[in-house]
Amino acid sequence: MSNLHDIPVTTRTGCGERPVLRERGQREVFCGLTGIVWLHRKLQDAFFLVVGSRTCAHLIQSAAGVMIFAEPRFGTAILTDRDLAGMADANDELDRLCVTLLERRPEIRTLFLVGSCPSEVIKLDLARAAERLNARLLPQVRVLSYSGSGIETTFTQGEDAALRTFVPLMPHTDARQLMVVGCLPDVVEDQFRRQFEQMGIADVVFLPGRRASDVPAIGPNTDLLPAQPFNGDTVRALVARGARLLHAPYPFGAEGTTAWLEAAARAWGVTPAAFDAVTAPARARAETALARQRPLLAGRSLFMLPDSQLEPSLARFLHRELGMRLIEVGTPFLDRQMVSEELALLPEDAVLSEGQHLERQLDRVRAARPDLTVCGLGLANPLEAEGLATKWSIELVFSPIHGYDQAGDLAELFARPFARRARLAV
Ligand code: SF4
Fold first, then answer.
1. Residue 249 preceded by cis peptide, ω within 30
2. Residue 294 has what pLDDT?
3. What DSSP letter does each residue of 286-307 carry, written as one string?
4. How many CB atoms lie within 10 A of CB 257?
């Protein structure tokens, strides 16, 4: 996938902001369809129907390959040459396919029509298709649509686009509640819910929840606590519905998790003593787990190529809690509203870059020869062949990494390449 705007590298600074290297050039990032892989696992009553090509089908089939033993809750309506040439009415075909699918799978309550590059190129209007199908299928099934196309989205933006579709459906509430925004594995959601409850914060909702049909309410007494830095559009839509955004670093590592939980605790008037009583044991466990990984990571240099938008948060964790030396922290988009707290915690000497210009970034990786490079799947093998240790960023969105009890596992994901090399060297 390439971007035609091959403009020179520029450095941008704003009032009180750290400099950012802006890159616009060839990209090497998955498209937003990838989000279906973790969203379909979470939303147990939803089906994701990609309206796309065989390439799109291959992408989600191979990305979700480990799931084939279960009845999948995703599929691809493949646009044929006749659709692309305008010789068949793709809308009629799509309606017919959706109705057949829903007859076969009566447990589905929400059907997402997911746009792709081909559906956008032929200007197939999936929002109108959803409206048309809703007129026929509501209230048994609700049809929603969003774009996961590589023209419009990268990798993690698919989740943001999917969650954003819930916001107009949310009923209004004046009740006080805490809303955690971002797809979390059930086990992590349960841990956070328990910790909030123990602090006395009982009215907690998660977006997304386990059922797409259970749409939470929203209103002026809702506090938003984002759990993923890449859901900025959803958060802004929720703020436009009156909710209040709590700013915090993300719950990666002992420090990040404490700061994230503290943001909610402060907003809800939890006393420091009550907060410590709830968090101290889990925090101590996390610190012990991190201490085990630190000898493998401390002092090692790290280069993060832009991929998942988790990069500033993970860089903060790897630097502050594990002693890694940051050379460059790249992110596909820098959404300052979502990562302001993280940026404040990054060391001054780390280069922060936004966007991608593949050749220039690879030149910098080769010049720096970092101990570890975090990158997409397509770059890992070539860099490994050049003797550079790599970590696939996609693993970081597929693995449970949030919260105290996952802190050690998160560190271990980065320590593994060093442990493997150490074993090979013996
Ligand atoms: Fe490729 Fe576009 Fe389909 Fe993604 S949506 S798999 S980038 S064709």
1. no
2. 97
3. HHHHHHHHHHHHTT-EEEE-SS
4. 27
Report the length, in residues, of the chain.
426
DSSP 251: S
Compute and round to an integer the Cα radius of gyration of the chain. 22
pLDDT at 3: 35
**CB 85 within 8 Å of CB 51:** no
The DSSP string of 173-213 is: --S-EEEEES---HHHHHHHHHHHHHHT---EEEES-S-TT
Residue 145 CA to ligand 1 centre (angstroms):
16
Residue 115 CA, closest ligand 1 atom number: 5
Among 48, 74, 149, 151, which residue has the most ligand 1 atoms within 8 Å of its CB, making it the best to mutate?
Answer: 149
Joined together, the tokens standing for residue 426 give 């013996």
- Which tokens sit at 291? 């201490």
CA distance 77 to 114: 10
* CB 162, CB 38: distance < 8 Å: no
Report the 10 Å Cβ neighbour count for 233: 16
Which residue has the CA at smallest separation from atom 7 of ligand 1? 150
How far is Cα 405 from Cα 11, in angstroms, rounded to an integer? 39
The label of the residue with tokens 């797809």 reads: 183
Per-10-residue mean pLDDT of the chain, 426 residues long, equals 37 61 87 92 95 92 62 83 75 93 95 96 94 95 97 92 98 98 97 98 97 96 98 98 98 98 98 98 98 97 96 98 98 95 96 94 97 92 94 89 98 91 73
Does residue 130 have its Cβ closer than 6 Å to ligand 1?
A: no
Atom of ligand 1 lying closest to residue 55 CA = 6
Three-state DSSP class for residue 420: helix
Task: List 21's β-bridge partners, or say none.
Answer: 11, 353
The answer to whether 117 and 149 are in contact (CB under 8 A) is: yes
pTM of the predicted model, to two decimals? 0.93
- The tokens of 144 are what? 């929603």
pLDDT for res 168: 97
Contact 220, 174 (CB under 8 A): yes
